[in-house]
Design a protein that fits this description.
This protein is mainly beta and 286 residues long. It is built from three helices and 15 strands. It is 14% helix and 39% strand. It is globular and about 55 Å long.
Length: 286
């Protein structure tokens, strides 16, 4: 994904992001943008390049502030990772691009993602999934309908499997990870978490009436990295609702219903300022 230069304790690390064809399937308003999950994967690689013994699977205080646009296949985006060593051995890392202002010698920098990588913690140090509650699914939305009408992504990022099952208490969905090993990394297949974000987006369109995009999370623990070609299940539970932003906890389960990943405090926000609205048929009517 990104070519990294080995460095010591400097606070900036050059990175050359290669735009593979599959990345162009990740869309915002019909324009390809670098996925948040790929930003986290890139930052994890950069931190491991700095400190090989770091446990990058324990993360906190992630923010995805600005989209990083991509133009065409084969493009290389010149960027850098800025990092800061914190207490207890933690490392705070940010993905930043720099672009020359047209008609001048000035350059403008933009921060696209920032995340804190924490030191190793016990695998049990994460929020347990809520006890299963027998409840009727209010509505099911098939994966093809999700990607045609609610979350318009290209084929590489259409990874919900079957249907998204919705109720006021949350959403659940099957996920299949594409057998695309070049997208794999220290955090496993990035497509699985990305698809879980899609389930949260669908829930928000149904019950909150806006199209939410992931703008950050408070805490994440990857217990078992998802594997290319694997099948998983996501469960998304809302914890806080606002007019333009919802907060969720989510769990990703693998074979045997074992927990592979936990994200606490996922923030999904309407980044269009209300310009884009969900279709009428998905909105809850009371």
């Amino acid at each position: 994904m990104g070519d990294l230069s080995k460095i010591g304790d400097n606070n900036r690390l050059p990175v050359h992001i290669r735009v593979f064809a599959y990345l162009l399937d990740h869309m915002f308003e019909s324009l390809p943008v670098f996925p948040a999950v790929e930003s986290v994967q890139l930052l994890a690689r950069a931190v491991l390049n700095l400190e090989e013994e770091m446990d990058v699977r324990s993360q906190s205080n992630a923010a995805f502030d600005k989209f990083l646009p991509m133009d065409e296949r084969g493009q290389t985006i010149e960027a850098f990772v800025e990092f800061e060593r914190l207490d207890n051995g933690r490392i705070n890392a940010g993905l930043i691009s720099r672009k020359r202002v047209s008609g001048s010698r000035m350059t403008r920098t933009k921060e696209h993602a920032r995340i804190c990588f924490d030191r190793a913690v016990l695998s049990s140090d994460y929020q347990e999934p809520p006890a299963a509650v027998e409840e009727e699914t209010e509505i099911q939305v098939s994966a093809p309908t999700v990607y045609k009408e609610l979350v318009p992504m290209g084929p590489a990022y259409q990874n919900l499997d079957g249907s998204v099952r919705l109720s006021a208490e949350g959403a659940s969905a099957g996920i299949r990870a594409p057998d695309l090993h070049k997208a794999n990394g220290p955090l496993g297949s990035p497509f699985v978490l990305d698809a879980a974000f899609h389930a949260a987006c669908v829930w928000g369109q149904r019950y909150s009436g806006f199209i939410g995009f992931p703008v950050g999370f408070e805490r994440r623990r990857v217990i078992k990295p998802a594997e290319p070609g694997g099948k998983y299940t996501a469960r998304v539970v809302p914890t806080s609702l606002d007019r333009n932003e919802n907060i969720f906890d989510l769990w990703i389960f693998g074979p045997g219903n074992s927990v592979f990943e936990v994200v606490e405090g996922l923030h999904m926000r309407d980044v269009t300022g209300g310009r884009k609205k969900p279709p009428v048929w998905i909105r809850e009517t009371r």
